């Protein structure tokens, strides 16, 4: 794959940014070195860190329209905005099905807005390693606001809290009340509830039930979720309140030290997932060579734990001369 022009990336060239993210999606080598170069070139006097906003909720709740309205508001404040729309993957091509959100194309000619659809790559939580890498890349490039919009809602969406600084759960009067949101198991991850389409009947009930649930919940990192009404299809109605709530949550994270804790957790989760993926790929190669042609009786009586222990021993041999186990894992994967 062609080399990435660091100068073009730092200058804000969105085509170079798109190519860099494509490298992340295919797992190309050298992306870690690319990030190192970017941080080195930026130094300590560059822009502040990105504020990563996770936008999740049921299909049809208006997440894309809300992201569009938030983008307009932030652009009015001269903030650069990147939107990563995580779509389900095509079973035929592996790519994102929905493509770049049509409703956000009014920002297509704005160099301060970057919109990218990314496939979930089979992740139940809707956030792939490539998405995590893209967030790190955008942070290194100084994009002030990064919105990660995910598909669906429920237990499988809990992964969004592992990547976002602020999680906004979008619901509407027309798609169920707060109790349904609670049953979906998502109240625990929400920093802000956005009741979109607030011009529909039932908005008072939804708002009341959400606030009742919040009063019964425990603060997460000292923060109780807020409830904000919005009607994104009608310009910025309510969207300014939502943007202010997002900024207030960011200020809370910074003041309480919770932001640093979330960044450390994000690093931990990403490293564990990378190790799991690479170790899994190695195990599949070993099993393809050694277990593919096992007679049925041997396969039935085989001990998976013993196979796993054997593979792990090959991946991480006993340390000699204080060898770094991470280096041993990387070397084992490269050898195979």
Structure description:
The chain has 336 residues and is α/β, with parallel strands linked by helices. The protein has 2 domains: 44-255, Rossmann fold; 262-335, no CATH class. It contains 12 helices and 7 strands. It has helices at 6-10, 14-26, 31-42, 63-76, 129-140, 178-183, 203-216, 239-256, 258-290, 296-301, 304-315, 325-335, and strands spanning 51-56, 81-87, 113-119, 145-149, 166-171, 192-195, 226-229. A 7-stranded parallel sheet has the order 3-2-4-1-5-6-7, sandwiched between helices. The chain is globular and about 65 Å long.
Round the Cα radius of gyration to an integer and report it.
Answer: 22 Å
Choose one word for the global shape: globular
Ends: how far apart? 22 Å
> Please, what is the average pLDDT?
79
> How many β strands by DSSP?
7
Strand order of the largest sheet: 3-2-4-1-5-6-7
List strands and helices in order, with pairings.
Blueprint: H1 6-10, H2 14-26, H3 31-42, E1 51-56, H4 63-76, E2 81-87, E3 113-119, H5 129-140, E4 145-149, E5 166-171, H6 178-183, E6 192-195, H7 203-216, E7 226-229, H8 239-256, H9 258-290, H10 296-301, H11 304-315, H12 325-335
Parallel strand pairs: 1-4, 1-5, 2-3, 2-4, 5-6, 6-7
Helix pairs in contact: 2-5, 4-8, 9-11
Quick overview of this protein structure:
This protein has twelve helices and seven strands. With 336 residues, it is α/β, with parallel strands linked by helices. The longest helix has 33 residues, at 258-290.
């Amino acid at each position: 794959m062609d080399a990435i022009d660091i100068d073009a990336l730092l200058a804000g060239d969105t085509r170079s940014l798109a190519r860099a993210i494509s490298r992340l999606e295919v797992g190309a080598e050298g992306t870690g070195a690319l990030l190192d170069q970017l941080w080195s070139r930026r130094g300590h006097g560059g822009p502040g860190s990105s504020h990563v906003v996770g936008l999740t909720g049921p299909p049809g709740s208006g997440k894309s329209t809300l992201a569009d309205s938030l983008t307009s508001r932030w652009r009015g404040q001269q903030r650069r905005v990147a939107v990563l729309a995580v779509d389900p993957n095509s079973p035929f091509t592996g790519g994102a099905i929905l493509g770049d959100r049509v409703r956000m194309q009014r920002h297509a000619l704005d160099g301060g807005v970057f919109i990218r659809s990314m496939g979930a790559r089979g992740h139940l939580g809707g956030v792939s390693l490539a998405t995590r890498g893209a967030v790190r890349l955008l942070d290194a490039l100084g994009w002030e606001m990064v919105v990660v919009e995910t598909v669906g809602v429920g237990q499988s969406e809990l992964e969004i809290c592992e990547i976002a600084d602020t999680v906004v759960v979008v619901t509407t009067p027309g798609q169920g009340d707060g109790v349904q949101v609670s049953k979906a198991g998502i109240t625990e991850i929400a920093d802000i509830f956005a009741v979109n389409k607030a011009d529909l009947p039932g908005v008072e009930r939804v708002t009341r039930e959400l606030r009742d649930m919040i009063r019964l919940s425990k603060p997460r990192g000292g923060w109780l979720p807020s409830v904000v009404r919005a009607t994104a299809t009608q310009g910025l109605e309510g969207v300014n309140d939502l943007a202010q709530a997002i900024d207030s949550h960011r200020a809370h994270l910074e003041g309480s030290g919770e932001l640093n804790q979330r960044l450390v957790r994000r690093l931990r989760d990403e490293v564990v997932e990378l190790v799991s993926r690479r170790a899994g790929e190695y195990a599949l190669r070993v099993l393809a060579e050694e277990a593919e042609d096992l007679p049925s009786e041997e396969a039935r009586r085989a001990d998976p734990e013993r196979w796993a222990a054997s593979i792990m021993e090959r991946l991480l041999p006993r340390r000699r001369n204080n060898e770094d186990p991470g280096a041993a894992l990387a070397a084992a994967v490269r050898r195979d």
